[in-house]
Amino acid sequence: YGLECSLDELAAALGIDPWELRWLNAADRVACTGQPFDDPFGFRAVLEAIRPEWQQACETACRQTASYGEERWGAGLAANWYQFGKAGELRVSAQAELAMARGRELDGSS
Questions:
Q1: How far apart are CA 94 and CA 49, in angstroms?
Q2: Is this model's pTM higher than 0.85 or not?
């Protein structure tokens, strides 16, 4: 939950849609390290599949907020691929592209 909220806040700070941030940085066949995946897992296909529902949820939330005055409505997005156990550094470009430099394994293996 915390990571997803952070991604949404980052998207807001960059002035782009949270779905778009995830799309721009979705791994497909090659990891951020340049290492190819043995078995592509289809994250971009998942994002494509949820996009219409995401757009509709956002439109509904905007209409509901406009209709109810001070009451706020929202839409949430949780779509990411996680590879735990890594330490690294995250850089964000002006074009909303994320670059992650990985360090050592957190569990001590390489």
A1: 27
A2: no
